[in-house]
Design a protein that fits this description.
Length: 372
Amino acid sequence: MGPEQSRSGYGLTLEAQRPELNLLVVAAVVLVFGFLVTFHEFGHYLLAKLNGVRVLEFNVGFGAPLIQKTWGETTYGIRSIPLGGYVRLAGMDDGETGPRSFTQKPVWRRLTIIVAGSFANLILPIAIFFAIYVLQSGGPVTVQELVLGAPAQRAGVQVGDQLVAINGHPINSVYDLRDQVNASGGNPVVLKFGPPGKPAYNIAIDPIRQGDRWLIGVSPSGGAIDPVHGIGDAAHQDWQFIGATLGGFAMLVSGAIPGGLGGSCGPSGPIGIVRATAEAASAGWLNLLFFAAFLSVNLGILNLLPLPALDGGRLAFLVIEGVRRRPIDPLKEQRVHYAGLIVLLAFVVFVSYNDIVRLGTPFGSLLSQCGG
C-alpha cells in the first residue's frame, strides 16, 4: 500500500472480467463473509459482557452445531453453515427478566451493546489496512504502482524501480517519500531512483495537488515499518471509506443514483455481493483485503439504518424509550420488527433480481460505469 498515493484515492482495482471460480475463490468468499459477520457479533458479545448482560450463546456460523463447548455461563459453538454467526443474550428475545437480562439494563447500556456490532465493523478496516502495510514492508522501497499520466510516470519512473532518496534524504520507509513530497509545497523535488541492482539517477519532478496533499503519483511498498504513520494512514483510509459509503447511502435515499434502484448502479443484494467478493478474490489477496474493508464499512453502516429487523431499528426503539422514560410494549415492538423483516426480505428479493439481470456485466465494469 502506498501512502504517497493510496488505493483509497483511486478505488478498488477490480478487473472487468468474470471471476474464475475455484475452490480457493469459494473458500475466500466464505471466509470473508463469515469473518465480517462474526466480528460484528463479537462486538455485541464483548459489550454485553462488559455491561453485565448474561450471554447465553456465541456461535460461528448457522445451522446444525458441529462443535459446542460451555465455558462459564456461555455456550460457544461452530455450526455447519459458515456464513456469519450470532450471539444470544438473556432477555433479548426469550422474555427473561432477571437482573442480568438485557431488558433490565439502563437504556444507555443497551444502546452501547446494540451499536457495538456496527462499531466493530467500522473500525475493522483500520486493522486490515495496517496489516496490508506491514505485509508489504521490508526490503528496499520500490514502486508498486504508478498513476497513469502523473508526474512520476511522465518523468520516466517505472513499476519495480527502487526509490533511493528524495531531495537528498534517504527513503527508508514509504512515508519518507510522502512526507518530503508533501513538504515541498508544490516546488520541484529531486527523486533518486533506478532499477534494482543498477546505478540510480536523479531527476526533478513537479508535484501536483490533490485535496490537501502534494503528490507525484507513486504508490510505493517495502521499507521499514513506521507504526505511528501506518496506523494514522490506515485510520485516514477507513474514514475515506466511511465517507464514500455514507455518500452512497445519501444518493440512494435522495434518488440520485443513475438509473434508479433497478438500474445498473442500483444497490446489490447477496448475489451481487458474493460475485463482487469472488472477483476481488480472483484478482489477488490484496484486492480481497481491500474489498473486505469496503464490505465491513457497508455492513456497519447498513446495520445502523433505523429500519425494523436491523440493529438500527432496535436502536430507534431504545431512543424512543429513553425519551418517553418508559419501555415500549415488547409485543408491539416484536410485531414491528417482524413487519420490517418482511419488507426487508422483499427488498432483498428485488435487488437479487437486479443482481441476476446484471450477471452479464463484470462488477469491475459496473464500478467504472457508476463512478466507483
